[in-house]
Each structure stands twice: as structure tokens, then as C-alpha cells.
């Protein structure tokens, strides 16, 4: 009897092609994935990584996702760890974005992005500049007037050196005839630290993606005064820098990389998983909740995009006197 049951089971498995003929959602998900966030908790990269992890599971592309935060140097410290410790691991990914490019340009780190494997761009987001609720400044013009009078008196707070909000501050200084190297920029290792500094009045003005500031703007603890987008963000009454007369436009995109040393097939598998995750309900909810613009770009197209972004950012930073 046991032999007959075994043969019936074997025949059934063969008929289904050893699970190959089962619908995708009935197959076992891949092994657990590890996502490195090269920043402290609470910021845009952290939010992106955790939203992606949830979407990967929601889409059935991963059985489990674990996270590790490793902040510092615009992500370069995390990048170095990722390149060295995760080499050849087909189940590891790292969150990154425009901020990392700027940081690598300004700090001249020994580790480079070319040592890792591009997977996909996920989102795009523009920077919002905010004032603490009790700030003596009311508008961006007030900030610019103070900047012209004494550049050091305006303390800008945001992400790492070379972040998009840092570049935007330097671009603004250059626009209004102020030496961009005199911009008093305070870099924080994560969005949570920057938010605390703004709420505590330890900086004059702060910049980041709207999603990081949203609860504080809605509660009245922060006052938004400008956005670096080409037009106003949908549903938000925040003027653009260009609308205010300053030719400053810069976007902040985010994506994921894999470690070095994986095979082309393993890279494609990760690309397919990430693209599938961005088509899930969980990802759609994350986009809506955080005000992120979907900007999926995968594989070679993403790799080429990053190269162009490096060149463009270097040019802007040179013109603005940052490097």
C-alpha cells in the first residue's frame, strides 16, 4: 500500500512538472532577501527599503525580508560594507539614490557604485524646504535676504553632504550671487535626525522629500515654503522655486543595487522580482501614502541613467562651487 501511494504521488508530481505547472502564486516564494539601508532609520531610504520589502512579500516574490541600517557618508559606509560583505550573494540588495551619487562626488570615497550591480530605479521625489513653526522667517525671500546679508547666519539642515537638498541650497546661493562654498549646511546621517533638528529649531531651514515632513507639515509643526519640482506637487499649496523667481529644479530618485559577483541570470531574477513588487497593491499604497512618483527603470537602462546622473550632478556641483 505504501508503495502504491508513493507511485501515485510521483505520477501526480510529474503531471504538474514538479510544480512548474502550478499558478505562480501557488509556488513557493524565493529564499529570504536581505535589504541593506545605507542610512539611519527614519529617512527616505529607510522608508523605501521597508516599503519594497513589504511589496516583495505581498507580490509573492520573497518569503521573508530582513533589513539592516548602516548610515554615514551619504551611504558610502553602507556601500563599502555591501560590496565587501555581500559579494556574490543573489539574495541581497541595497537601497540607494541621487543622494549617494552626490556624496560620492563630494567625498571621493575609495568605494564606487561601479563595484555593485544596478537593479532598478523605483521612485522619484522632489525636495520640499520647510521652516520650524516658530521661525522668524516666513517665506523663501526672507531666507534669501538673510543669506545675502550673512551666508553663515542661515543654517540649512538635511541629508548627507552632496544630497539633493544640499545641492539645491548651493544652486540657490549661486542663483542669488552668494558664494556657494559659504553655505552653512548641516548634514545629518538620517531623516529622523534632520527632522528632530528642524523641530527643535537647531537649523534655520530644512530640506527633504515631502513624505519625510508630511506629518509635521499637516500638524503645523513645520511650514513648507518651496519645492524643487518643475510644477507644484498635486494637491499641495507649496510654490516651486522657479515660481518664486529662483532657477532651482532638482529631483531625488531612489533605487536598488545588488552586490558584485552575481551572475547575469541572478541579476535578471532580482530585476524580475523588483519589477513584480512594484506592480503589487502594497507598493501602490506606499506610493500614495508617501507622495512618491513611480519611476521604474530596470537593468541596462537604469545603469545608463545612473551614468548620466553622475555626469549631470558633477556639472551642477562644479558650477555651484561645491566641488
From TrEMBL:
UniProt signal peptide: 1-28
Keyword list, A-Z: Signal
Pfam families registered for this protein in UniProt: TctC
Domain of life where this protein originates: Bacteria
Family, as annotated: Belongs to the UPF0065 (bug) family.
Protein's name in the database: C4-dicarboxylate ABC transporter substrate-binding protein
Organism of origin: Roseateles aquatilis
Amino acid at each position: 500500500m505504501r508503495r502504491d501511494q508513493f507511485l501515485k504521488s510521483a505520477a501526480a508530481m510529474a503531471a504538474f512538472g514538479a510544480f512548474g505547472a502550478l499558478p505562480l502564486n501557488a509556488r513557493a516564494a524565493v529564499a529570504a532577501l536581505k535589504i541593506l539601508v545605507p542610512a539611519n532609520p527614519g529617512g527616505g531610504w529607510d522608508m523605501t527599503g521597508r516599503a519594497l520589502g513589504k511589496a516583495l512579500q505581498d507580490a509573492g516574490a520573497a518569503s521573508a525580508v530582513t533589513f539592516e541600517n548602516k548610515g554615514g557618508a551619504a551611504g558610502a559606509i553602507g556601500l563599502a560594507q555591501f560590496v565587501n560583505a555581500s559579494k556574490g550573494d543573489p539574495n541581497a540588495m541595497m537601497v540607494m539614490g541621487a543622494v549617494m551619487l552626490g556624496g560620492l562626488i563630494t567625498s571621493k570615497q575609495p568605494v564606487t557604485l561601479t563595484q555593485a550591480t544596478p537593479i532598478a530605479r523605483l521612485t522619484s521625489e522632489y525636495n520640499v524646504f520647510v521652516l520650524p513653526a516658530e521661525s522668524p522667517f516666513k517665506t523663501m525671500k526672507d531666507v534669501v535676504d538673510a543669506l545675502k546679508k550673512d551666508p553663515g547666519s542661515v543654517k540649512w539642515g538635511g541629508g548627507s553632504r552632496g544630497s539633493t537638498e544640499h545641492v539645491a541650497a548651493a544652486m540657490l546661493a549661486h542663483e542669488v550671487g552668494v558664494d556657494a562654498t559659504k553655505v552653512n549646511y548641516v548634514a545629518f546621517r538620517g531623516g529622523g535626525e534632520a527632522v528632530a533638528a528642524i523641530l527643535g529649531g537647531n537649523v534655520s531651514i530644512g530640506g527633504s522629500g515631502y513624505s519625510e515632513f508630511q506629518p509635521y507639515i499637516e500638524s503645523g509643526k513645520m511650514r513648507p515654503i518651496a519645492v524643487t519640482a518643475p510644477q507644484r506637487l498635486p494637491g499641495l499649496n507649496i510654490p516651486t522655486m522657479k515660481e518664486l523667481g529662483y532657477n532651482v529644479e532638482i529631483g531625488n530618485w531612489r533605487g536598488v543595487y545588488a552586490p558584485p559577483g552575481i551572475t547575469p541570470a541572478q541579476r535578471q531574477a532580482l530585476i524580475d522580482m523588483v519589477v513584480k513588487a512594484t506592480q503589487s497593491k502594497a507598493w501602490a499604497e506606499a506610493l500614495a501614502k508617501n507622495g512618491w512618483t513611480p519611476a521604474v527603470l530596470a537593468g541596462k537602462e537604469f545603469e545608463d541613467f545612473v551614468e548620466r546622473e553622475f555626469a549631470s550632478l558633477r556639472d551642477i556641483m562644479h558650477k555651484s562651487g561645491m566641488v
